[in-house]
Each structure stands twice: as structure tokens, then as C-alpha cells.
Amino acid sequence: MKAPDFAYARPASLDEALELIARPGAKVLAGGQSLIPSLNMRLSSPELLVDIGALRELQGISFRNGFLTIGAFTTHAELEQSKEVQKHVPLLAQAVPHVAHPAIRNRGTIGGSLALADPAAEYPAVVVALQAVLKLKSRSSERSVEAARFFKGLFEADLRPGELLTAVEFPAAKPSDKSVFLELTRRHGDYAIVGLAAHNDRFVFLGVADRPTPVEAGSSLETAKSNLSRNLKPSADLYHSAAAKLHLAGVLLERAWNTLSTSR
Amino acid sequence: MEHALDITLTVNGTVVLQRVEPREHLIDFLRERLGLTGSHVGCEHGVCGACTVRVDGKIVRGCLMLAVQANGCRVETVEGLSDSKELARLQKAFHDRNALQCGFCTPGMLLAAQDLVSRRKQCSREEIREHISGNYCRCTGYQAIVDAIEEAMHG
């Protein structure tokens, strides 16, 4: 199908963008890899698309004072190629190749993915596992939100009207940190049946509920597994029953646990 | 706010100036306005890869980019890359290996494959499969396509 009619603006400055985003019916266009399909399928009908692609201040990766800050308009492909990401946020580096396919990674952005709050997406689980901080800005305010508080539900994030996600701040990994990202899919790049972002003792699942879902690991694999079966209540999808998903989550938990403990 | 915009872009080496509606995606722009029907429209929501084109040297989904977003960009399609002979080796390998039947996916498949072949890296069959995982083929079962890409890469 074809997208409905809408107006389009490509502001040259952040102030101008924030002004436009505050208008009723406006929607932010980042890489467009989720928004444009939803327009094509007429699941979304904004009056105005505000293309943030020209805003240099939303792009790039910088390391300072033990934190790696990634601009919201940084593409998956840029993250994939970044030595800084590999060095300072290895969990994110591991997750990127699981995001869709090369042609989509060339356009899609980290900010777009986080702001969409798709429970099957990789980055929401990664930012929660790493306790990253999301930077939000509007015409009149500026605030930081901890990743764990940002995701409110299915495609629902703590983004107020007129607010733009401008950057994500990750604490840089310490030499003693261990992390692993795992995902099960029917075909590489598809939505995960279930995925797991694990960082030290924080295990965060994706694709099992309406938002990234942490599971208390405890001190042994047995404890972690029993916490999982007690607390994780995955919902079935078109192809997999809730029981199958729970089983697969257990498989990933065990793989992650073994990877983390052998690399110690 | 603008509901029609003038855009200037380079398509297969030719400068093009057109007035477009923001809702028009790049692949329709290339096919309907410029008559470049080599790139195909499959699913129109980014799943099938039939509309793969190159923008500023990078492969993208033509259905997931608006024509207005290509303003100022350098766009290359299967027509341009065939004429320049950049795809010649891959095309010959696809032909020799029977890597197509109906041919609907082939233009997108060639662009995705060339993205890998042009890196001049030797890849395993598994890596090739991963790289073309975003391109559907409903005829061949992929085996022959992977053969062809492997041949173009190693041959």
C-alpha cells in the first residue's frame, strides 16, 4: 500500500526541530525503518513528518569521563563499525548484527528503535541491562531517564508530547565486566522469538512481554532458572506457544550463564 | 508546511530535478517517474528486499525511504550498475548457476550480493546467507544463489 498524505519538514537546527515536533499531529522521522512501513500500511497517519536527518548534533559517538554517548540519529551500521562501541559497550556491539538486515541497518537508528519501544527489538533490552540513560529534550525542558523506567508498555515509552530523544549514555564497560547477547529467530534478522541481553548478573529478556523483562539471576544457574520459570510469563505469538517461549528463554539463560562463567 | 517539494538528486549518474509529494517513496519515484522498473516493488514494508537500491554507496530498501529524503543523494539502481558493468561478474555467475527462475527478486538480490562481493573479503556460505537474509526468493531455495555469489567472490 501507499502512505497517506502528510507534510514534511527537514529542519536544519535542533531548536527548529523541537518547535516543529511540538505541533499537533507531528511525528519524528528518524531512519524510518519502522515508521515508513507503518505509513505504507496506513497504521499511522501523521499530519507532519519532522525529518531529523540533517541534525549533526544528534549524530556520532563520543567517549568522555567513563561514558559513551551515542547520538540518537546514529545508524545501526555506524554502531556496527564503531571501534568505540566494541571497546566500551561490547554488549551493544554484539546486539547490532541481530537488528534486521544490512540494507535496513544502513538507515535505521538507535534513537528510532528506542523511541518506538518495540518489545521484540534488541536495543531496549540492551539499554536496560547496561543501565544506560536516555537524554530527552523539548522546547522548554531537558531531562534524563534511566532505561529501566523508559519503557512503559507495548510501543509505549516515557516520551512526552514535544519531546525528542537526543542521545543515549552508556557507562563504559570495566575490564571485569562480562556480557553476552543471544537471540533465537526463525531466519537471521527476523524478529526474535526470544532474546537475552546479559551483563554480569543482570539478565534482560526481549520478545517475551510488552517491554524488556529483567529476571533476577541469583547466585546459581538453578536459582536463575527457577526465578525464570516463576516470574516470566511470556505471551504466545503466531508461531510459538507461551510454553515454547518459556522453554526457549530457559535455553538462552543457560547458554548465557555458561558463556559468562567460562569467560570469567 | 510543504505538501510538495522540489528535489535534486543524481540517479545513475544523471542529475534529476522533480517536484514530489512527501508520501511518495523512493522506489515508486524511480519506477513511475523515471521509468527505472528494474528495481521491483514487493511487499512495500521492508521485508522482501526486491526494491533494494543504493543511496550514497549504501544499499537501502527503496520502499522504506521517501523520495524527499533522497534530495541531494546519489542513487544507483540495477540499470546503472548493469550499464557500468559493475554487476557483470555477478550477473554471469547468476546465469551460469541458474540462480534465478522468475527473476523478480534478482535485481535486489544482485545489489545485496554486490554489497558483499565489493568488500573483497572471502566469506563462508553461512556469511553469504546472512548477508542476503533480507532478500526473499520464492523460486530457487537460495542454494543456487549462494553458489553464484560464492563463484563471483572466489572466481
Structure description:
The complex is a heterodimer of chains A (264) and B (155). Chain A folds into 3 domains: 7-51, Uridine Diphospho-n-acetylenolpyruvylglucosamine Reductase, domain 2; 60-171, Uridine Diphospho-n-acetylenolpyruvylglucosamine Reductase, domain 3 (2-Layer Sandwich); 179-262, CO dehydrogenase flavoprotein, C-terminal domain (Enolase-like, domain 1). Helices cover 33% and strands 24% of the residues of chain A. Chain A has helices at 14-21, 35-40, 76-81, 83-88, 90-95, 102-105, 110-116, 122-129, 147-150, 221-231, 242-262, and strands spanning 7-9, 26-29, 48-51, 61-64, 67-71, 133-137, 142-146, 151-153, 156-157, 164-171, 179-184, 194-199, 202-206, 213-216. In chain A, the strands form 4 sheets. Chain A has a 5-stranded antiparallel sheet with strand order 4-5-10-6-7. Chain A has a 4-stranded antiparallel sheet with strand order 11-12-13-14, sandwiched between helices. A 3-stranded parallel sheet of chain A has the order 1-3-2, covered by helices on one side. In chain A, strand 4 (61-64) and strand 5 form a beta hairpin. Chain A starts with 6 loop residues before the first strand and ends with a helix. The model of chain A has no long low-confidence stretch (mean pLDDT 96). Chain B has 2 domains: 5-81, Ubiquitin-like (UB roll) (Roll); 87-154, DNA polymerase, domain 1 (Orthogonal Bundle), CATH 1.10.150.120. In chain B, 35% of the residues lie in helices and 16% in strands. Chain B has 6 helices and 5 strands. Chain B has helices at residues 26-33, 78-83, 88-96, 106-117, 125-131, 143-154, and strands at residues 5-11, 14-20, 52-55, 58-61, 74-76. The A-B interface holds A 1-10, 32-33, 36-37, 39-41, 47-49, 51, 53, 77, 100-104, 106-107, 187-189 and B 1-3, 5, 21-23, 25, 28, 44-46, 49, 52, 58-61, 63-66, 68-69, 112, 115, 129-131, 133-135.
